[in-house]
Write a structure and sequence with these properties.
With 455 residues, the chain is α+β, with helices and mostly antiparallel strands. The protein folds into 2 domains: 93 residues, Purple acid phosphatase-like, N-terminal (Immunoglobulin-like, Sandwich); 316 residues, Purple Acid Phosphatase, chain A, domain 2 (4-Layer Sandwich). Helix content is 19%, strand content 26%. It contains 9 helices and 21 strands. Strands 3, 4, 5, 7, 8 and 9 form a 6-stranded antiparallel sheet that branches. A 6-stranded mixed sheet has the order 12-11-10-19-20-21. It has a 6-stranded mixed sheet with strand order 13-14-15-16-18-17, with no helix packed on it. α4 packs parallel to α6.
């Protein structure tokens, strides 16, 4: 008679202690007792500037978290302490604000007064001060989109949609300075869409992938989103939980800012738009969901993907930019001429024409769109009326299934760049002022080059 009562007591105890993010079978850290009991995912490096760097970490339960960072001269500093809690999915953003430009630092995560140890380097180097002193540094940026991590209980029946998680180890071996996640960085499933618990659990599940951890810890990460990390498939501005989507995105990513400013907002929508500079290159992270016309709206005039407010912001910033390359990051393809799927020309052709016309009128040079979504990769190029060329580097998917067909006619595709397998991209910026080169490449899950082009 005691056995049922004992089981009931145990089950009640588990229920009362279940507020921490649930671990998934096969996804539990085994880096030592301290880490496995306290850290859920991370650390992850966020934005990187000359005077600040961001370190993100997620604990399993309420904890006091800080980061200690030490330069090569042995000078040690600490971030402020952050208390993690269930409302914020036990995430913490720690700002290292006593750094110097161009210095190398090792860092350690301290949880409840105890330093965590990891089987890979935890280090970063702040951006250097180079203007009026010499040429901008050479640097490398990794790219990718569409990260699906299987969880059979909540996946569609059949073979898992995710595969080749080793790709994150291949990216890490390239030692990029930064990485840009181009959307569908996790895949919300049906049980996740309508609750904060669902959003936070899905983001936690993907972020906890063991193969990802070393890359998170040594490379600075920036992100925009697409439909699957925003809401259901093909979601638009009508999505009822768009504010919850933004809240969760902002908890799990560490961009330098998120959303348009108060005086730029229309219809109460901020989105996740932002911009940052890495050395001499400007990156613009656009929101292709929050301002977008509902897909099935019958009245089709003035259809928008980015929205006039965000377009105005982008053109203003492109005009202001003195960067030799201006990287415009969008969840879906911009220059693919095929009028299908979620390509810009299919969803909002008039807005696309307006965007390209404004780039032409303002004589903005060096524009490269960085895009994802399509579950295949390719390089597109288009010559504008003023003779300048714009490019679209599509890199997809990292671990999700393959889609796309050799029969899809994209008139702007550069021959030899269509990839139908899991892959990631690298942008390599090099050369002296006035002759900066950008070399773009796609790489397979082992890190072998598939194609490479110098723009």
């Amino acid at each position: 008679m005691m056995r049922p009562l004992l089981l009931l007591a145990l089950s009640l105890l588990l229920c009362t202690c279940g507020s921490a993010p649930e671990k998934t079978s096969g996804q539990v850290f085994r880096y030592g007792d301290d880490v496995s009991q306290l850290i859920q995912s991370g650390p992850m490096l966020g934005y990187n500037e000359q005077r600040e760097a961001m370190i993100w970490v997620q604990t399993q339960r309420p904890a006091q978290v800080k980061v200690a960072y030490t330069n090569d001269a042995g000078e040690r500093r600490e971030t402020a302490t952050v208390s993690t809690n269930s409302e914020s999915a036990y995430t913490a953003k720690l700002v290292a604000n006593a750094v110097e430009p161009g210095e190398h630092y090792t860092y350690e995560v301290i949880v409840n007064g105890k330093a965590m140890t990891f089987p890979y380097p935890t280090e970063f180097t702040t951006q250097p001060t180079w203007r009026w002193r010499g040429d901008a540094p050479d640097f490398t940026v990794a790219l990718g989109s569409c990260t699906y991590v299987n969880e059979a209980k909540y996946d569609r029946p059949g073979t898992g949609y995710g595969d080749n998680y080793k790709i994150f180890k291949a990216i890490n071996e390239k030692q990029p300075d930064a990485m840009i996640w181009l959307g569908d960085n996790t895949y919300l499933r049906e049980p996740d869409w309508y609750t904060r618990t669902g959003y936070q659990r899905r983001y936690t599940h993907t972020r906890s992938l063991p193969e990802m951890q070393a890359l998170l810890a040594r490379t600075h990460h920036y992100a925009t989103w697409d439909d699957h990390d925003y809401g259901p498939n093909n979601s638009d501005r009508s999505w009822v939980n768009r504010e919850l989507a933004k809240e969760t995105f902002d908890l799990f990513w560490a961009n330098p800012s998120s959303g348009l400013k108060e005086n730029e907002i229309r219809n109460g929508t901020r989105g996740i738009t932002t911009q940052f500079r890495y050395n001499d290159v400007d990156f613009f992270l656009l929101d292709n969901r929050s301002f977008r016309t509902p897909n099935d709206q019958v009245r089709g005039d003035n259809r928008t993907l980015l929205g006039q407010t965000q377009l105005d912001w982008l053109i203003d910033n492109l005009v202001f930019s003195d960067a030799p390359w201006k990287m415009v990051c969008v969840g879906g393809q911009v220059l693919n001429s095929f009028a299908g799927h979620e390509n810009y020309v299919n969803l909002a052709p008039e807005e696309l024409r307006y965007l390209l016309a404004r780039i032409t009128e303002e004589n903005i040079e060096g524009v490269v769109f960085l895009t994802g979504d399509r579950h295949h990769s390719e390089l597109s190029e288009l010559k504008l009326a003023n003779g300048a060329t714009v490019y679209d580097v599509t890199i997809s998917p990292l671990t999700a299934g393959i889609a796309g067909s050799q029969d899809e006619v994209n008139r702007n595709r550069v021959e030899g760049t269509h990839v139908l397998k899991n892959n990631f991209g690298l942008l390599k910026f090099s050369g002296p002022a006035g002759a900066r080169r950008l070399t773009v490449g796609a790489y397979d899950v082992l890190g072998e080059v598939i194609w490479e082009k110098t723009l």
